[in-house]
Amino acid sequence: MIQVKNLSKSFGSTQAVSDLSFSLQKGKTTALVGPNGAGKTTALHMLSGLTTPSSGTIVYEASISDPRTIIGFLPQYPAFLNWMTPEEYLHFVAQLGKKTRKEAAALTEELLERVGLKEFRRKKIGGFSGGMKQRLGIAQALVHQPKLLLLDEPVSALDPTGRKEVMELLKELKNESLTILYSTHVLHDAQMLCDDVLIMNKGEKVVFDSLDSVYKQFDRPQLVVKAEEPLEKWAKELVIAHPQWSVSVEQNSAVVTGASIQELRAGVLRELLTKSISVRSIEVGTTTLEDVFHEVMKK
Length: 299
Hints:
Blueprint: E1 2-11, E2 14-24, E3 29-33, H1 40-48, E4 55-59, E5 71-74, H2 86-96, H3 101-114, H4 130-142, E6 148-152, H5 160-175, E7 179-183, H6 187-193, E8 196-201, E9 204-210, H7 211-218, E10 222-227, H8 232-241, E11 246-250, E12 253-257, H9 261-274, E13 279-285, H10 289-297
Parallel strand pairs: 3-7, 3-8, 5-6, 6-7
Antiparallel strand pairs: 1-2, 1-4, 8-9, 10-12, 10-13, 11-12
Helix pairs in contact: 2-3, 4-5
């Protein structure tokens, strides 16, 4: 659906995005992840047309004369007119998108129902919770019936309830085969929702592939140890004895990662028995998107 080729953007002497290339496939959901300052927002702004690239190209569907007609965009910090109701706001935005009054009214009705705000249609936006405002923001991005949805950190500032509401809405949109690119710091959510993942760091692409391929590429055998006692001291001694392993510890739980599950099993069991650790359970773990993220950030 979209081909991005050698896209770069600089602001004065600061290179925000450098030589970025990737593609978005129709009906796929892609997670854009990276640390603060990685260039994620700048990349989204260039794709949406809000920022002009310094160099490179963005190729949309061949039949599209104005890409803005197929793009819905939700910024990280959406601005609303708090004295408006959601009904008034969506009607206003729809007319800005060149919908007739009749079309705007029908779309407003449909979208308020879709994002779960119909019962609040005549309430002032200023009294909305963060989750309600984000759902309204997504409705605003959908009001002109786009084919591509760009979302900048749609759940980052939300409490658990608001995050759940927005994630459920995004899952519904994904099931309708809408093409979605969204940036996020919540890697667990990305893992649950996305088909592809694009990882950026310092303005450059670090990883771009399907989630399944990323897991295969970065898969590392893991053992998850849970004990009746804190494991910090045991973990430090384990790394000294086996420097080829990596260990992460959180109180009474430790995740040990190595190159061979057979080696891990034998070595971890031996070290647990040697130190007389009271073990609750030992499980074979799986690589997560967070594991991949931390590994590629070290390079």
